[in-house]
Amino acid sequence: MQVSSFKFYPQSATSPPLADRCDAVVVGGGFYGVSLALELKKRMGRVAVVERESGLLRRASYANQARVHNGYHYPRSILTSMRSRVSYTKFRDEFAGAIDERFTQIYAVARRLSKVNAQQLSRFCRRIGADIAPAPREIMGLFNPHLVEAAFVVTECAFDGFRGPRRWKC
C-alpha cells in the first residue's frame, strides 16, 4: 500500500505547528482515519495523518478478524442487521481490491448463556434474507457439542487493508 500523500510530520522546537502546515489533521491511521484523510484530501488539499505506529493500518485495522458484517452478527436488532446488509454490498463494491473470500465463514451458537438459540438465528436470517446453512459434519466436529448447539455457514467476506483498495493508493 502506498501512502506517499500522507506525511508524518516530526515536531521539533523550531518547526511550525502541524495545524499551520496542513489544511486538516486526522488523528489515527486506521481504516476510518485513512478513509477520512483521503476524503478530506479531495476537498481540502494538505492532510496530515497522526499515527503512533510506524505505519498505517497497524493496530485494530490489522489485528481484528476483519470480517465484513452482512447482518448475521445482530440477531437481536433487525434495524442494525438490515443496515449492515445494505452497507455490505456498498462496502464490497467500494473496496473490491481488498475483499478476501478465501475463508469459509462460520457462526456458532453457544449451548448455554447465549441470547439466541440456533432456531432463532435461522429464523432471523430468513427474515432478513441472509444466506445460512447448517455447517457440514467436518466443521461441526471442530466444536465441543457440550458447548456449541449448532454452527452455520454464512455469506460474508474479510477485508485485507494491505491488499489495498485502489482509492487508497496515492
Tell me briefly what this model is:
The protein folds into two domains: 1-64, no CATH class; 65-162, no CATH class. 32% of the residues lie in helices and 18% in strands. It has helices spanning 18-21, 31-44, 60-63, 78-94, 118-128, 137-140; strands at residues 24-27, 47-50, 67-68, 99-100, 105-110, 132-134, 148-154, 157-159.
List the helices and strands and how they pair.
Layout lengths: L17 H4 L2 E4 L3 H14 L2 E4 L9 H4 L3 E2 L9 H17 L4 E2 L4 E6 L7 H11 L3 E3 L2 H4 L7 E7 L2 E3 L11
Parallel strand pairs: 1-2
Antiparallel strand pairs: 3-8, 4-8, 5-7, 6-7
Low-confidence stretches: none
Number of helices: 6
Count of beta strands? 8
Major sheet summary line: 3 strands, antiparallel
What does the radius of gyration come to? 21 Å
The coarse silhouette is elongated
Q: What is the domain tally?
A: 2
User: What is the mean predicted local confidence, pLDDT?
Assistant: 84
Strand order of the largest sheet: 3-8-4
Tell me the structural class: alpha+beta
What does this structure look like?
The protein has 170 residues and is an alpha+beta fold. It folds into two domains: 1-64, no CATH class; 65-162, no CATH class. It contains six helices and eight strands. The protein has helices at 18-21, 31-44, 60-63, 78-94, 118-128, 137-140; strands at residues 24-27, 47-50, 67-68, 99-100, 105-110, 132-134, 148-154, 157-159. The strands form three sheets. A three-stranded antiparallel beta sheet has the order 3-8-4. A three-stranded antiparallel beta sheet has the order 5-7-6, covered by helices on one side. Helix 2 (31-44) links the parallel strand 1 and strand 2 (47-50). It is elongated. The model has no long low-confidence stretch (mean pLDDT 84).
